[in-house]
Please model this.
Amino acid sequence: MKKNTSKLIACILTCSLILGGCSASSVTGIPGLLYETFETIADIVEENPEGLSPDVPPSDIWTWPDTEEHEEEYDWGDGLTDDDLPDAEDGTVTILMYVNGSTLETEGGYATDDIMEIIEAGYSENVNVVIQTMGTKYWSRKLGIASDRAQTYVVGKDGLELVRDNLGQLDCTKAETLKDFIEFGAKAYPASRNILIMWDHGGGPAYGFGWDEFRDEYENLSLDEMIKALRYCNVHFDFIGMDCCIMSCLEITYALREFCDYMIVSEDFESCLGWYYTDWMKALYADTSISTYDLGKTIIDDMIYKNEKDKFRGDRSILALIDESRMDKLWEVWTEFAYDNEEALLKTNFSQEMEGTGKGADHVLGNRSGKTNALKSDLFEMLIDEAIDYLTDGGSYEDLYFDPDEVYISDYCITDMMCLGQMIDSDHSEKLMKAVDKAILYVSATSDNLSLTGLAVTLPYNDEVLYYDLASVLNKCGFDQDYVEWLRKFCDARTEKEHIDWESWGEKFWNEWGEYESSDIWGEW
Model:
């Protein structure tokens, strides 16, 4: 999931003075479904300066599909072969963006914001940007994206171009939906270099990707369903990026190793800001042969910079570029370490807590002075924009102080792998740290999140429900049955949590945030 934080006490006071108590519905004259017509009051002012209701009929909500649990049959045939896919010209790139806007779009227009960042990057004849929009009841009207059906767009010279409008309201949590989108993109826009980006909420290896607003809240695109879709399509990706929360887990990176060379994923929650798309796409347009390392570094640096500097929407963040060619070795080393240190792992709950961790007060982010165009530098403008968004969402004062749905990464048993190697003294510890270090090509974190190092593993401490959900997915993915059974032991590991303190272990050992490259401290294999 992405966190939509509201730091708006000052904003509410400011907005109350400016708007003079005017409600959103009284400005537009539209009771109820405000987001079906406009995202924010700013839209209303821009498109209707007279303050009148636009002559736009709302979508018929009764035509939306029901939310019964979907059943997957996977009767797809044998899968695509190289003969099924068109030849690609050298130097061409296709970026497939699987965008399930969900509550992030409905409540704040964040998917639209990111698509606008993509449009701002411009256009290249050698780079196809294919975007599928779905799973969202109220898309902002800024770009004309439909709310009552899924659509497929490409980025052209004049912005978004609609290329498929006959899809109906697709279920983004079905493997078939992902399969059909990748197959369409690979056949219609063949390229010598392919990139897949999945945009929405994330729930780690147990709960996968995507919460579709038209579906039951427990539905998701699970890791095994991703594998089925990717294996059928026979498209190898330069990198798979997940612009969503807590997906930098060994179970995910290991399971997807055959489908991509690299992954760009977050070990922690992402804020509503997510990735910033303009700069890295401009770099790709300028040079389609640019290295994935350089692209990944730009993506990571921009996201961390935004969250570090945006005091209203930003939050603690971390993002890593993972080398998928290292996953077989890392899995081998991890299981050796885990079995050898079973007693120590069961004795102490090492799943990450955000409260109580070290804050890295002395960490200084690299100079990013060239990025001011990506953020709003004017404090007054930020206050107004945040206040408008909050009031448009129907926010209340109580929401500023208490969020009953607040969760922490410890709820998903996120256990940082480098921390385990450092805190448990065993014959396999140094080998584990070496393997993790080699797997992470680049990582950066905000200055308040330095107790994470980029890659986690899931140990279901004291959580039987999480275990059975995780075990079901891992079994379907073909993980070793002995390992899945071994994880069951953690359901009864009644332990106190161990807070990983930056100052107690990382200060003299792990100093790789910011200008990071896989270090030489371990030497060669």
Summary: The first helix runs from residue 9 to 19. The CA atoms of residues 173 and 221 lie 4 Å apart. Confidence is low (pLDDT under 50) at residues 5-68, 354-382, 397-402, 507-522.
